[in-house]
Amino acid sequence: MPANLTADYLEAERDYKSAATQAEKVAGLERMLATLPKHKGTEKMQADIKRRLSQARKEAQKKGGHHAAPFYLIEKEGAGQVALVGPPNSGKSQLVCALSHATPEVADYPFTTRMPTPGMMLFEDVQIQLIDLPPLANEFMEQWLPQAIRAAHMSVLALDVNDIAVLDEIEFILGLIESWRLAPPKLVIGNKVDLPGAADNFEALEEICRGRFPMLGVSALTGEGLDRFRRAVFDALNIVRVYTKAPGRKFELTAPYILKRGKTVADAAAHVHKDFVERLKFARLFRLAGGDRDGQMVERSHVVADRDILEFHI
Predict the structure, then answer these.
(1) Is residue 288 left, alpha or beta, with left meaning phi > 0 and alpha meaning psi from -120 to 50?
(2) How far is it, in rounded angstroms, from Cα 253 to Cα 44?
(3) Strand 308-313 to strand 282-286: parallel, antiparallel, or no bridges (unpaired)?
(4) Which residue of 12, 171, 221, 230 is surrounded by the most CB atoms within 10 Å?
């Protein structure tokens, strides 16, 4: 049986052969193993790569070399990392293209995405990192997908509302995620709502799935629903933005500090400077929308809300 090696595999093999360090060899072999087609015709190649990978890791440890992070673990950037999961042809790659400056390969055939592709999505004044991942399907899945999903702060399930098998795909993917002991998706999006009949399809799907998870209809092609998607992802990350101002100065609402929801004034002070926590006497709270608490003194234990402006007094 022919191996049918992919372009991703051949590129990984070239990187391995040109590696100058043990860490680079380990990374190359990990990519080779991940991108090698998995079938009977490649069983010997899989075994050989695993043997070489084990030896390369041992050599890297002996030499005290730094073990490179696996290629599928993307370094986190921005206010949060969100893994996009879904069946083949659900439009995940087109969503990342529409929401960021990333350029993952987009095509109308399945399994186009073979490697994780990050893109930064702007929501108001914060960046959120989206990771386009290969599809989850019965016929084939990348072995490293559970680790990539687990590493993200949350996942979003993307579906094509026009696919006649969409209900089966939902059950398969949710069952798979549960079997991997991963957190379920925080949001389910029905993509391609711009197509004829798609609005009715989404409405029916939303009715069937009502109460199980939040759903949102979008079109990566026309942009419909993408602003609501940005807001929904920000809310699902369970974070807040906190701004600071110096006493006697005007607000400068740039580069907010990002905290988990439920954090306090003291936690916000620690983000600004570690010495602030010990020396902080109190803070004054300002809010853009006004209200009784604008400029009011608050204690260290006061829980901050999204878009609070704090003036620290030490």
Answers:
(1) alpha
(2) 59
(3) antiparallel
(4) 12
Q: Pick from 35, 33, 32: which is nearest to 17 by CA?
A: 32
* Residue of higher predicted confidence among 283 and 106: 283
* Residue 239 CB coordination number (10 Å): 18
Could you tell me the two tokens for 120? 């930064």
Interval 155-179: pLDDT, tens:
999 999 999 999 999 999 999 999 9
Distance CA 106, CA 109 (A): 9
Residue 8 DSSP one-character state: H
> Which amino acid does the sequence have at 131?
I
**pLDDT at 152 exceeding the cut of 80:** yes
Nearest alpha-carbon partner for 285 in 242, 238, 241: 242
110 membership: H or E segment, kind and range: none
Domains defined along the chain, listed by start:
7-62 (no CATH), 81-236 (3.40.50.300), 239-313 (3.10.20.30)
End-to-end CA distance of the chain: 73
- Global pTM reads 0.75
Q: Report how far residue 13's alpha carbon sits from residue 32's, in angstroms, rounded to the nearest whole number.
A: 6
